[in-house]
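Tokens for chain A. Residues wanted.
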């Protein structure tokens, strides 16, 4: 017998559980199906645990440079990786309990099992019912039928046939988070966000790191000036970066992994290899073939309101072809529910979603970069360096800069890039400013407290008009 509900959500990651809470607050009866843990990749295998590791790496960097602050630490500073992992897990566990409490508070029914979408059947005349199977073989399959369905199945680490993951010596980000000991050396294949974040934290914790990137620069989705600045900082820190280098194969021998690199005569040996070439949407094995929903290797196709080709079925988050970011999945979940309830919603302008990279130094951007400007659009740029900012100098993190871009025709702020201390926090001011159609002059004329890092934003905004005071 089928179990009926108003809204069924397949996947309990950041997009799925936020959509569930939003719908419950609107008075809907919600069932959430999750095959693992609420919170998904972001909470358990991505955003939160990696940022906890990055914080430990930052503390290690501070201690190693303590003499620069007039603090003499006698003896060597050691990394207790077991304690690092213990702290990381404690943070994840606390947030996990919080998510569970929120779901319970909002009276959302959670079904822990693997769900697959059904086509028209005896349970429903249209596609969208979901069959749930369980690891416990003695537990019978359950069928859920709902008026609306949201698919939020997320994504998984991508790899290539010649880079077979074993999660022991050749690892994805999942395997990296299960390491109990730090390797002496590691090759990271891929210089995107995931690759450079892991490179930054592992180097700070004492690992010899080499990045292999097939393209000619790191973090290609950021501006070339930011990519160049990150490369300079990585090289200064001692992180080896091999650009325009294509890894053609790996071979495991005697506890080492040998990388074959195009154009190099001999393989290069490392203790571990991390594959960080991106993530793929989870669209296989969830029953989409039973429906008329359109999907491909890039994900499920949706309209501006996250409806699939079957209008009562929605899809959000990493399983659709939008930015694979937790805050994007959350917003998409909210908007999908808004459309279900009110039959209208305001589409996201993905260009104006803040993008963050948690390296040392941090990187954040919103809007256009010089490389992504539409052809023919005329702009003016303003810049300001953190080495002229008092707060950055006080904290000892004065490398980096702020870039601000305005549209010459409208005078609107249309792009900001930051590389430097706390860039991922600073970008929120500029994201909000773009959302409110502010001009750089309005940002520059607003009083910013002194001494703060935000003054670098103020000065860069004024520099668009050649009005910066400290430049």
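Reply:
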């Amino acid at each position: 017998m089928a179990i009926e509900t108003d809204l069924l959500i397949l996947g309990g990651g950041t997009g799925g559980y936020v959509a569930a809470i939003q719908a419950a607050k609107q008075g809907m009866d919600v069932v959430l199906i999750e095959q693992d843990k609420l919170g998904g990749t972001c909470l358990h295998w991505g955003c939160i645990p990696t940022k906890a590791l990055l914080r430990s790496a930052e503390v290690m960097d501070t201690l190693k440079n303590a003499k620069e602050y007039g603090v003499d630490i006698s003896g060597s500073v050691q990394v207790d990786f077991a304690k690092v992992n213990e702290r990381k897990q404690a943070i994840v566990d606390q947030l996990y309990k919080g998510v569970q409490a929120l779901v319970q508070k909002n009276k959302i029914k959670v079904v822990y099992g693997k769900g697959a979408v059904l086509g028209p059947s005896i349970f429903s005349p249209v596609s969208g019912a979901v069959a749930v199977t369980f690891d416990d073989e003695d537990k019978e399959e359950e069928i859920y039928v709902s008026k609306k369905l949201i698919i939020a199945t997320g994504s998984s680490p991508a790899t290539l046939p010649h880079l077979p993951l074993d999660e022991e010596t050749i690892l994805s980000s999942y395997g990296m988070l299960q390491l109990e000991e730090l390797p002496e050396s590691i090759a990271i294949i891929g210089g995107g966000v995931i690759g450079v974040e892991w490179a930054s934290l592992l180097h700070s914790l004492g690992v010899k790191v080499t990045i292999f990137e097939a393209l000619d620069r790191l973090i290609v989705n950021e501006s070339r000036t930011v990519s160049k600045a990150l490369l300079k900082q990585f090289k200064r820190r001692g992180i080896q970066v091999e650009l325009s280098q294509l890894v053609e194969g790996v071979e495991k021998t005697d506890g080492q992994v040998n990388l074959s690199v195009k154009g190099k005569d001999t393989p290069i040996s490392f203790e571990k290899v991390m594959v960080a070439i991106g993530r793929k949407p989870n669209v296989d094995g969830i029953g989409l073939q039973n429906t008329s929903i359109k999907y491909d290797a890039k994900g499920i196709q949706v309209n501006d309101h996250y409806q699939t080709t079957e209008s009562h079925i929605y899809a959000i988050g990493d399983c659709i072809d939008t930015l694979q970011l937790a805050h994007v999945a959350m917003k998409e979940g909210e908007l999908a529910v808004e459309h279900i309830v009110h039959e209208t919603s305001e589409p996201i302008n993905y260009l104006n979603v803040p993008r963050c990279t948690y390296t040392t130094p941090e990187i954040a951007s919103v809007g256009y970069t010089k490389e992504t400007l539409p052809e023919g659009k005329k702009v003016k740029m303003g810049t300001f360096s953190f080495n002229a900012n008092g707060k950055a100098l006080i904290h000892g993190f004065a490398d980096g800069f702020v870039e601000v871009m305005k549209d010459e025709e409208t005078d609107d702020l249309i792009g900001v890039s930051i590389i430097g201390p706390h860039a991922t926090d600073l970008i929120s001011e500029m994201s909000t400013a773009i959302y409110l159609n502010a001009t750089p002059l309005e940002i520059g004329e607003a009083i910013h407290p002194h001494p703060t890092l935000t003054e670098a934003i103020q000065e860069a905004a004024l520099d668009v008009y050649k009005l910066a005071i400290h430049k």
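The domain at 162-277 is CATH 3.50.50.60 (FAD/NAD(P)-binding domain). The chain has a mean pLDDT of 96.
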